Amino acid sequence: MLTLAMSDPPSRDALAQYTTGARALDTLGIVGFFAAAGAVLARLGSVEGVFAEPLMWGALLAGYIGADFFSGTVHWFFDTWLSVRTPVLGTMFVRPFREHHVDRTAITRHGFVEVNGSNCLATCPVLVAALLLDPGSPGGRLLMAFLLALCLGVFATNQFHKWAHLSDPPRAVRWLQAAHLALGAEHHALHHAAPYDRHYCITTGWLNRPLDRIGFFRALERGISWLSGASPREEDTALT
Length: 240
Description:
Elements: H1 12-16, H2 20-45, H3 54-80, H4 89-102, H5 112-131, H6 138-164, H7 171-178, H8 185-189, H9 208-213, H10 216-228, H11 234-239
């Protein structure tokens, strides 16, 4: 049987722990992310008139929407399955998501590296793959644009999430939230009601209502429970 959660819940201290090794890895991820994203943008920009192409802007928008879907799927998975004690994934990904259920303002006390490092690590391989595409072909540059926007959106996700928890965000952030280009506080507050099982998308939140309406994540949970025998959100249940 596949073990996706542990019956013995983590302590609040374990949820709050951010190790030196994790910080070092996150720092490397951020440096690598900006280097790779800059290289992809430079390759795209080397094509004359590339950003005057309507399809290019469609690819960029599709990538940004894709980031919202990706953020929701990842958020759902690490909220729902595995444990903070799971090797590597527990420290880098599960811990930050579970901590904000116990302490909603915890993310506002995290620095730039802790907030954004894990997403940079996750997207670096995608950006490297984008560099292998040919911007001289229409299909190649559209896919490059899609992947770049996807990765930039994923990078921004945890920062947007942090801003959604600030009691008094900066004016520019409030403008982004009001324009629905970044996750808004009121919208995200719907996620923070036990058992934390809806509104998982945390880039813009555009996809939350349609995914909740069709029961997308509940269907995935039923399938995984059937395959593994595990129950969703076991650690959250024990902590609340």
